[in-house]
Amino acid sequence: MQSPSRDIRLRNCFSMLRHLLADHPSSRPDLAKKTGLSVATVSNLVTELIDLGVVVEAGLEDSGGGRPRMLLGPNTDGGVLIGVDVATTYVKFEAYDLALQVLFRIEEQVDLAEDTPEKLLDHIASGMAAVREVLADREILGLGVSLPGQVDVAGGISVSNPNWNWRDVAFKELLAERLGLDAPIYLDNSLKTVTAGELWFGDGLGVERLAVVVLGTGVGVGLAFDGKLYRGATNSAGEWGHTTIDPNGPVCRCGRRGCIEARIGAPGILRQWAAMGCDREWETQESAIEALAADWKTGEEPAVRTIEAVARDLALGVANFVNLVNPDLVVFTGWVSDALGEALLPELRRRLPDHVLESALGALRIKLDEQSRNMVILGAAALALEGHLNRIKSVGSRARL
Amino acid sequence: MQSPSRDIRLRNCFSMLRHLLADHPSSRPDLAKKTGLSVATVSNLVTELIDLGVVVEAGLEDSGGGRPRMLLGPNTDGGVLIGVDVATTYVKFEAYDLALQVLFRIEEQVDLAEDTPEKLLDHIASGMAAVREVLADREILGLGVSLPGQVDVAGGISVSNPNWNWRDVAFKELLAERLGLDAPIYLDNSLKTVTAGELWFGDGLGVERLAVVVLGTGVGVGLAFDGKLYRGATNSAGEWGHTTIDPNGPVCRCGRRGCIEARIGAPGILRQWAAMGCDREWETQESAIEALAADWKTGEEPAVRTIEAVARDLALGVANFVNLVNPDLVVFTGWVSDALGEALLPELRRRLPDHVLESALGALRIKLDEQSRNMVILGAAALALEGHLNRIKSVGSRARL
Ligand SMILES: [Zn+2]
Ligand SMILES: [Zn+2]
């Protein structure tokens, strides 16, 4: 595991970068004020960030009579970070400069039958070839890849993959061979990358105890404590989808009965809608969930009752982890949250006091992720940025974030 | 919140003390070897621990030709730590020397009708008078008090108390006034103190992700991550007892339906036993649970079926937090665990694979607390010891524990 001083260093770097991205150029004293770090710590970190090519000097500021202050900004002409989101039906790529602006974006369609690591490597190599062609003159600092299923981060292993029936594939090694890339590769699953994205570049920044609820085909809860991703003993923390909320509930795709995912994952929601009287059919899950959102907006009875039922299950499940973990903030994200969050959240807020203990409820904020950015990919790139920043030696006290 | 360097310092101190308590006298190089700390860090910490009166020099060791090595031991003649466990029917006191040996123990009986803070203060003052009389010549370094219900640690407030219907009592201030004690007072609830006890002096030492399941009248899960008690945003983390495992389950004492506590807290277990055909009656809950354990041992059908049913519910509830938190170790403690743990644990082990995801199960150890010590009281004293050790300035790198 990481050392605590490395954790603090990363936290301090991300805090400075975040402030620098939001408002630049900025002087060292400005950054010290915003981060709560000492000017000495900021100066040490800035020196190293400049050496690493992450930060550049960007002009001088008149300091009112004294020596003019050097202003700093992100090095947008420096190296690039690549984020990759691997899903069942697509592989998405984004290349970022060090201001985390998207320089290039490309998507490969994946056929459901392409279920071998080799096929997936073909798609990643093809996407990466396009990225490298467009950004030929830029150094790639790191590649972060989000994979579905269970990932052994240290070993770079895709331990299990629910969609493709993989076991223990040395994916990082295969990918490194295939791409022949000099830059380091970081592998993790999407629950972890999206949480890293929220922690460093989303609503989670500065939150001591963060929970990120991902609502999609599956559901999960990414956790971050003390400004650090919480992975658990085997990087499988957050498997909230397979916690039981009703031993008599429907059978889940994991084979167990009564998992919350069986009720509030997209297929579970659509099952509930059908049970409430909706007999239409759709090409895709995604279009069906969109139709449910549209029906709810116009007050169609089956849709309204489905939202109520899903919100009731969601409230039980959210209360269960809130009572256990007592977080400061719960952020809802994922494509189902994007489509139905507006409908679900007011119902959820109304129901939570019935299930969450008063003391935990008092400290709790809940919100929808309103970032326009793809947090899974940005989070994957953030893992690569973490790796790059880990070359820094300075520590200092801890930033306020 | 505490600073990270303070966390590391505490972790290092407790690691050294733990090894020193287990095997003393020990030399500085011995301690460095056992803790994984550098000899320099150990030497700095030892110097400060000697200054604080926690550690003493205890003779010389021949180092085979070189300069003889100074041997160290706990300062058993130094100050004392007091732990207090406040429950509905008793207040228990233990005074410890700095080897954490019990010097004196006393118990006050509390009448169920004595439900005001004043009455409770009377009992604590009476017990403390007895402690001070017996240990008149010893300095009290700190007093740790475990209270039922919700506790605001920083403010020293008893926020709510389920048994006595209190709200927001400034208990620490009242207690300080009443006792006129020079030593600092540390207040927390029993879930937190028992977890501190397990973390520093029990099975939790060196465990990165620890869960302590307390089974009693109520149930809860104390969490400790990175060698540090996890409190949550409002010190109410661990309220596992009021997580829902069955929306159609029995009504809980918190007023909600389907909490796991309503099934596996002592009253819930006894209700299940009655439903299985046991129609005997007992003076106390405790004697009833003992009778259930005895019946299970002799293979009485209602008892065997009750244990099966409780183990089934326990497996669901344990799986829920294991899937979420992915701990390395789950320790079962509390008076119901003491009585029924031997019966429940094999059933629990058998059932967990049906509910816990494979990757989390692979890393998981579960065990009964086999400490002969009262971990609630020892843990309360450990909080006082933490406070005392926080005067130390040295940090160093992190101990292996
Ligand atoms: Zn499941
Ligand atoms: Zn309850």
Automatic annotation (TrEMBL), chains A, B:
Starting at the broadest rank, the lineage of the source organism is: Bacteria, Bacillati, Actinomycetota, Actinomycetes, Glycomycetales
> Which superkingdom?
Bacteria
Instruction: List, in alphabetical order, the Gene Ontology terms for molecular function in this entry.
Output: kinase activity
Q: Which organism is it from?
A: Glycomyces harbinensis
InterPro entries in the cross-refs:
ATPase_NBD (IPR043129), ROK (IPR000600), ROK_cs (IPR049874), WH-like_DNA-bd_sf (IPR036388), WH_DNA-bd_sf (IPR036390)
Family affiliation:
Belongs to the ROK (NagC/XylR) family.
The protein depicted here goes by the name: Sugar kinase of the NBD/HSP70 family, may contain an N-terminal HTH domain
Note whether Transferase occurs among the keywords: yes
The keyword Methyltransferase appears for this protein: no
**What are the protein's UniProt keywords?**
Kinase, Transferase
